[in-house]
Write a structure and sequence with these properties.
Blueprint (H helix, E strand, L loop, with lengths): L2 H10 L23 H18 L7 H8 L19 H16 L4 H7 L10 H11 L25 H5 L5 H12 L3 H17 L8 H15 L19 H14 L4 H7 L6 H15 L3 H11 L3 H16 L6 H5 L12 H14 L1
Helix pairs in contact: 2-4, 2-15, 4-17, 8-9, 9-10, 9-15, 10-11, 10-13, 11-13, 12-14, 13-14, 13-15, 14-15
The chain binds magnesium ion (MG).
Length: 361
């Protein structure tokens, strides 16, 4: 069964938490002359952001600053050296990419299987539940909890790969299926669709868009796909809020931008944990304030947020796709281990070579 049929059956049975939209059948767009530097940037942006953040993940920004000052480089990792090493953000992104390259397309059960039976660093609650469900024998489309955490958003970008070569209009279908594998939640699936559509656009851009683009584009896509309307964010800026993620971003992020808040103050206002109502406003706001410079944006994400490895990974994902590998600071690339496990140094760079081959063929 192809992904389109799988998706339509899940939708009809009410088993996937997303709104049906014309975008699921969007006409094919060709991307023949894609600059591979941008695809490398997209993947390495995740690895670099994750590695810069994961040594101080989950610390409050003020406590982190007290202990480390402003972080601009890799800190000593769990092995005691100052190389950039991966956590779950990089691991799931690379495993998704690796499986897509093997299959030459996105096959949901194979990607789900690739997530199982591995040593994962900094595993989140939702993915843990997915792994337990899988072990109990639940199928790939039954094992993902309806969690609005950021765990599918951080790993979603490789889904564009087969579509760069041969887009049959199924990019949104693949994205929704790929999110639901671990996060079958309206805000989670819609956020993945928004991020993937954003990346699909920025790989064609030569310069940074206007700051407001990041917010408006994300909201435009979320509006198409969100179905759940009763989320409660932890933070209530200005007025009491219960509703969709797009409605929340429209209030919280727009207000912060109009008030010209710093990234730190804004991210502290809405908190900056793994809940999408915290992660997404942080990502968008950092892109709005510092999207013109890869290094500045990553440094703000690493220093000014709590779930800093994932927020930096997603910011790196988008800006890596916009600017390419060539705009990632050399010191961050040179000191990146390229690992996906404890000791497979250089593995990410190898997989990127195969990715280039795959796109050429
Ligand atoms: Mg992580």
């Amino acid at each position: 069964m192809n992904n389109k049929t799988i998706f339509e059956e899940l939708l009809k049975a009410g088993k996937i938490n997303v709104r049906n939209s014309a975008l699921f059948n969007a006409p094919a767009k060709s991307k023949d002359n894609i600059d591979f530097d941008k695809i490398e940037g997209m993947i390495l942006g995740v690895a670099v952001g994750d590695a810069l953040g994961n040594t101080t993940e989950s610390m409050q920004p003020a406590d982190r600053r007290l202990k480390h000052g402003e972080i601009t480089d890799y800190l000593a990792n769990r092995y005691g050296d100052k190389k950039g090493v991966p956590s779950d953000d990089t691991q799931f992104t690379v495993w998704t990419l690796e499986q897509i390259l093997k299959d030459k397309s996105y096959i949901p059960e194979n990607v789900a299987a690739a997530f199982n039976g591995k040593k994962i660093f900094g595993l989140g609650k939702t993915v843990k539940e997915f792994l337990i469900n899988s072990k109990k024998g639940k199928k790939w489309h039954e094992a993902g909890p309806d969690s609005a955490g950021n765990g599918s958003l951080m790993r979603i970008s490789p889904i564009i790969l087969p579509h760069l070569k041969n887009d049959e209009g199924n990019l949104c279908i693949d994205t929704a299926l790929c999110s639901m594998t671990t996060h079958n939640d309206s805000a989670a699936i819609a956020s993945c669709l928004a991020l993937v559509n954003l990346i699909w656009e920025v790989v064609d851009m030569k310069t940074a868009p206007e700051p407001i683009y990041w917010l408006d584009k994300f909201i435009e896509i979320l509006k198409e796909f969100e179905i759940r309307e009763d989320y409660n964010p932890r933070c209530i800026p200005n007025v009491g809020y219960r509703g969709t993620l797009w409605g929340y971003l429209d209030k919280a992020v727009r207000n912060a931008y109009n008030e010209n808040m710093s990234v730190l103050d804004a991210c502290n206002r809405w908190y900056s944990g793994e809940y999408l109502f915290e992660t997404v406003p942080c990502v968008i706001y950092i892109l709005m304030k510092h999207g013109d410079n890869f290094e500045d944006a990553i440094i703000r994400a690493v220093n000014d947020t709590k779930d800093n490895d994932t927020i930096a990974a997603i910011v790196g994902n988008v800006l890596g796709a916009l600017y390419g590998k060539s705009k990632i600071p050399e010191r961050w690339l040179n000191n990146l281990s390229g690992r996906t496990t404890d000791s497979d140094d250089g593995k990410i760079f190898e997989i990127l070579k195969s990715t280039e081959e795959f796109l050429k063929k």
